[in-house]
Specification:
This protein is α/β, with parallel strands linked by helices and 575 residues long. Helix content is 64%, strand content 11%. β11 and β12 form a beta hairpin. The protein is elongated, with a radius of gyration of 36 Å.
Length: 575
């Protein structure tokens, strides 16, 4: 969806409130514009004996001041309500989109960039909607109605104002064009800065342990200095808009005033025919000249908010315009008998092939271990099986059917993963365990806790399983990994994927957990990615990957007897 289409999409959802706010804006503008006209008449009536008309115009003017204030309040209230509703809908859309786009989109973005989209960009758009929408809506009505009334008062002076108006517009446009590139650069630098802050704060223990504080600070300062320069240039140029437009508008005011005085001074027959000028009319017209230029000044005042909002909205629209993760599957997968990789090829980078012509068949109940050097493609095979990525060539079959035949949700419901890097969210231990199965019974949860051998450390906590923990605090790496293991045991899927699942568990608990895994994986398929080769000796098949291809396969005994690449890897770990 194009940016303009997206704008109308959000405005359309608020059309009722928008219509009411337009009515209030129109009433407010009419009350404001009527006041100079009535005051001009009051001034002219003051020179006559018509006291009744004099006081009537005076009291109506005072009434319009109060009435205009009330309608302006309701207008601003509605504009604020519209902006908050739009931002609420936009935040919902962004978060929903983040949960529906392909995983590769996250790999191609700074982590801080997504944080900026959800927080800073949203706030910029909210500020821009309120400031710009208020100035724009009232401004349009003010300009149109003022022009009409100015022609009613004196058409000659009205033509003069309209002829001179483009000077103000040209001045604003010139500075806006200059500022465009700087606001874009600001948004890019802010995203980088957010990314550095986020990554550093989340990994402060590593930063300090490596004595990287100074380098991290210098990296931050380098980008921050560059952002400061861009902000300075943008602020400097944006600061010129308001004074320059005021200069032009004040000049127009003076010119119109001089022309009006000349018309008033030379009360010739020709002037009487063309446009009658009185002191009251001149006073009214000069007020209208100010009112006519006021919208241009107000728009220039919110120029920075407008530019920030425009770039922020474009960034949000770019994210919302990303195609959702494609799921063409129609069938529901309720069990897995076989998994077949046939001549499969894949690469993250088009210029560097990672997996080449890979073929493998895994049957139900097989315990498959995948080993190999870093970058051999072990984790990539799991990403393809989970359909986080799609292969460029070849086939991936489940039960002899293309994996794309099945819905992604049903496929992933059959697979449980325990990764080396565990994820724990802020909440109770119980909530973290139930993450994979929200409707789990107490008995099922207790069984998972027992099988993952968490009961010993849970009993030592003040609130037991209801103890609230944080993502990076309160638990050791091993304890967090036990929670991740309990999640999978609770889910009890058809396929279990372990990527160094016990790497952070102590030796005693590792043996106990491996025994629990063996029980859980009975009659089920398991895929184990291992770096510690001592943990996979009981695997049915060990696949040795190198450069995206299987160079050896067999059980531990056969591979050791072959004295090939696996033998060298295994031996090197026990030297």
């Amino acid at each position: 969806m194009k940016t303009k289409e997206r704008v109308f999409y959000y405005l359309k959802s608020q059309r009722l409130l928008l219509s009411v706010s337009i009515i209030f804006a129109l009433i407010f503008v009419i009350s404001q514009i009527a006041q100079p006209f009535l005051l001009g008449l009051t001034l002219d009536y003051a020179k006559t004996d018509n006291e009744q008309a004099f006081y009537l115009c005076l009291f109506i003017s005072l009434g319009l001041v109060i009435f205009g204030t009330i309608t302006d309040y309701f207008f601003e209230y509605l504009v604020g309500k519209i902006s908050q509703r739009i931002i609420k809908k936009m935040r919902d859309d962004v978060y929903k989109k983040l949960n529906s786009i392909p995983l590769k989109e996250f790999d191609n973005r700074y982590r801080g960039d997504l944080l900026q989209l959800e927080i800073r960009d949203m706030e910029s758009v909210a500020t821009g909607i309120f400031a710009v929408f208020k100035s724009f809506l009232q401004g349009i009505f003010t300009i149109i109605i003022t022009i009409i009334v100015m022609f009613m008062v004196n058409w000659i002076l009205a033509l003069g104002v309209i002829i001179l108006t483009p000077l103000s517009v040209i001045m604003s446009s010139f500075i806006a064009t200059f500022n465009h590139q700087h606001f874009k650069k600001q948004a890019e630098l802010q995203a980088k800065l957010n990314s550095i802050s986020l990554e550093t704060s989340e990994n402060m223990d590593i930063v300090q342990s490596l004595n990287y504080q100074k380098e991290s600070y210098q990296k931050f300062m380098s980008i921050n200095d560059e952002l400061k320069k861009e902000n300075k240039v943008s602020l400097f140029s944006a600061s010129w808009i308001n004074p320059s437009t005021r200069l032009v508008n004040n000049t127009i005011y003076v010119i119109i005033g001089i022309i009006g005085i000349i018309m008033l001074s030379y009360d010739t027959d020709l002037m009487l025919i063309l446009a009658v000028m009185t002191i009251g009319k001149l006073s009214s017209f000069l007020s209208y000249t100010t009112q006519y230029s006021k919208p241009f000044n107000e728009i220039s005042n919110v120029f920075s908010e407008y530019e920030n909002a425009k770039f922020s909205f474009r960034r949000i629209n770019e994210l919302l315009s990303i195609n959702d993760d494609i799921d063409q599957g129609k069938e529901t997968l309720d069990h897995i008998e076989t998994i077949s990789f046939k001549d499969l090829s894949f690469s993250y980078n088009p210029n560097k092939e990672l997996i080449k012509n890979f073929s493998l068949e895994i049957k139900k109940g097989n315990k498959i271990a995948i080993v190999g050097p870093t970058g051999a493609g072990k984790t990539t095979l799991i990403n393809l099986l989970m359909r986080f990525y799609e292969p460029q060539n070849g086939e991936l079959l489940i039960n002899q059917k293309p994996i794309t035949s099945f819905t992604k949700s049903s496929l992933r419901n059959n697979i449980g993963m325990v990764l080396q890097d565990t994820w724990i969210f802020d909440g109770s231990i119980l909530d973290n365990i139930k993450y994979t199965k929200a409707n789990a019974t107490i008995k099922e949860i207790q069984e998972a806790i027992k099988n993952s051998h968490m009961d010993s450390f849970i009993d030592s906590l003040p609130d037991g399983i209801n103890t609230v923990v944080k993502a990076k605090e309160g638990l050791s790496e091993g304890q967090r990994q036990m929670i991740a293991i309990a999640r999978v045991m609770l889910l009890s899927p058809n396929i279990i994927i372990l990527d160094e699942a016990t790497s952070n568990i102590d030796t005693r608990n590792e043996k106990l957990i491996n025994d629990a895994f063996d029980k859980m994986m009975k009659d089920k398929t398991s895929i184990v990615i291992a770096h510690r080769l001592s943990t996979i000796q009981e695997a049915d098949i060990i696949l040795v990957l190198k450069d995206g291809q299987i160079i050896e396969s067999g059980n531990h005994h056969n591979l050791m007897n072959n004295k090939g690449f696996y033998y060298e890897m295994y031996s090197s770990q026990f030297k």
